[in-house]
Specification:
The protein has helices at 12-31, 63-66, 77-82, 87-110, 118-138; strands at residues 37-39, 46-48, 53-56, 72-75. It is mainly alpha-helical and 141 residues long. The chain has one domain. A two-stranded antiparallel ribbon has the order 1-2. Strands 3-4 form a two-stranded antiparallel sheet. The longest helix is centred in the last third of the chain and has 24 residues, at 87-110. The chain is globular.
């Protein structure tokens, strides 16, 4: 019998969803200042990392860029959810922060089909958890 909440019977989709949750938490946590606040990459509002989203420049439905930290930044819920990512402002942010070369790299990368194995997703999830816990300890949050 499998314990409730056990990951033993998870399929690949559940592992991917869980890895994405930890990846997005890591993105927000590492971008936070020592008080736990981040700035929305598209509108500039400052909020606590727990109330922010981690918005993807290129939709996370493209597996090849879903876990790329250059493709994901803190974003307020208004921009990410209600303004559908606020794409014009996000493009301007990406161009100013990372340059057109990075934008082009992400676009090319997103066109490559990518299916992660359960083992890859487990390893990524564990690494993202280590990274956000390390950031949390460093910032005393």
């Amino acid at each position: 019998m499998v314990k409730r909440g056990s990951t033993k019977d998870w399929n690949r989709q559940k592992w991917q969803k869980s890895a994405l949750v930890d990846f997005q938490k890591m993105v927000r946590m590492t971008a936070a200042d020592s008080e736990g606040y981040c700035v929305c990459c598209t509108c500039g509002v400052r909020r606590h990392y727990k109330t922010m989203d981690a918005g993807h420049f290129i939709s996370r439905k493209h597996n090849a860029t879903a876990f790329d930290s250059m493709n994901c930044h803190p974003q307020c819920k208004k921009c990410n959810l209600y303004l559908d990512g606020n794409q014009i402002a996000y493009y301007q942010y990406m161009e100013q922060s990372h340059g057109r070369t990075m934008i082009n790299r992400l676009i090319q990368q997103s066109k490559t089909p990518r299916i992660y194995t359960i083992d890859e997703l487990r390893e990524m999830r564990a690494e993202f958890r280590r990274m956000w816990k390390r950031a949390q300890e460093t910032k005393n949050l």
